[in-house]
Amino acid sequence: MSRVVSGIRPTGKLHLGNYFGAVKSFLKMQEEDDCFFFIADIHSLTTHPTPEDLHSNVQQVLAEHLAMGVDPQKCALFVQSDVPAISELYTYMNMNAYMGELQRSASFKEKIRTQPNNVNAGLLTYPVLMAVDILAHHADFVPVGKDQQQHLEMTRQFGNRFNNLYSNDYFKEPQAYSSTGNLVKVPGLTGQGKMSKSSGDADTIVFDEEDKVIQKKVMRAKTDTGPTKPNQDKSEEVKNLFDLMALVSDQSTINHFDELYSKAEIRYGDFKKQLAEDVIAFVSPIREKINHFKNDKKALSDAAQIGAEKANASANKTLEEVREIIGFRKFY
Ligand code: AMP
């Protein structure tokens, strides 16, 4: 059984892209692997959230992941700050990370550009904390998107550097989790590619949105003037909507509209009406569950507690071994 570590950003409400692009693979991995999924609340401090926002964002993503089927019995679903060993390991690993390489990290450069007035040391050493999140649990695999490849490479570098410094092979090299065929890119509604929070409200379908709001958004999604002859290629916008339909509708519905398109007989109004209905049928039961979990303090606390216990057991063992390797040996 492989060990998998993955972080979850506590930045508010999940959308369909998060579900099909990340959470769904968590559901598969928790059945097959030894998983550590953590809500990265320490990482989020680089943006200085208020205490209220920090807490409610963590609560939101915890409730969302439980509602979507992440099972605290099958994996370790935990809050990063519930595991103090992470912060201590971060202090030690910072000694093996060099200014130059941290400054060259793509994410650091991006942050300098997007928030020039808040270039704090936490941003610079973000890859070190990320490495510790992974190394603390001796992960074999980390599910990473393209933007995170460099962080995984840095994790291997920091681990190897530690090994070289202390002449051992304590940390293994974590690899990118390859989820062939499992991960999909969910398109947005505005026809501009990937569904993403940053591309605006009209682009995303968020799980806690009311049915009416979803209906409106889908009906307003960008299309084109329609096919003028049989078997015409689909435009980017229309292909996006078909891709969305492939995720939420049944096969006969997809075939039906595909056929109409091929015959140049499709009416986008009907197509989008059906798509909206199917999106709502998919989203609304999950929304109900999210609301249920958000108000179920006991379920949240039980989940966070069992997750913290599992993660602490694993990270504390690593911390103890690292302290021994470094030479922190007790006199008492
Ligand atoms: P974010 O918090 O927006 O960075 O998203 C968290 C994770 O959700 C990403 O690392 C992706 O794995 C996944 N994700 C977000 N948007 C999409 C999308 N449109 N299609 C597929 N996966 C996505």
In short:
The protein is mainly α and 332 residues long.
Key terms:
332 residues, mainly alpha, Rossmann fold, Tyrosyl-Transfer RNA Synthetase, 2 domains, 3-stranded parallel sheet, two-stranded parallel ribbon, 6% strand, binds adenosine monophosphate
Would you mind describing this structure in some detail?
The mean pLDDT is 95. The chain is mainly alpha-helical and 332 residues long. Helix 8 links the parallel strand 4 and strand 5. It has helices spanning 16-32, 51-67, 84-93, 99-104, 106-114, 121-124, 126-135, 149-165, 211-220, 236-248, 251-262, 268-294, 297-326; strands at 3-8, 34-39, 76-79, 141-142, 175-176. The protein folds into two domains: 3-183 and 296-326, Rossmann fold, CATH 3.40.50.620; 197-291, Tyrosyl-Transfer RNA Synthetase. It is built from 13 helices and five strands. The structure holds adenosine monophosphate (AMP). Residues 9, 11, 17-18, 20-22, 145, 185-186, 194-197 line the site of adenosine monophosphate.
How many domains comprise the coordinates? Answer: 2
Number of helices: 13
- In what range is the share of β-strand residues? 5-15%
Could you tell me the number of beta strands?
5
Distance between the termini: 38 Å
Query: What share of residues is helical?
Result: 40-55%
CATH class of the largest domain: Alpha Beta
How are the elements arranged and paired?
Blueprint: E1 3-8, H1 16-32, E2 34-39, H2 51-67, E3 76-79, H3 84-93, H4 99-104, H5 106-114, H6 121-124, H7 126-135, E4 141-142, H8 149-165, E5 175-176, H9 211-220, H10 236-248, H11 251-262, H12 268-294, H13 297-326
Parallel strand pairs: 1-2, 2-3, 4-5
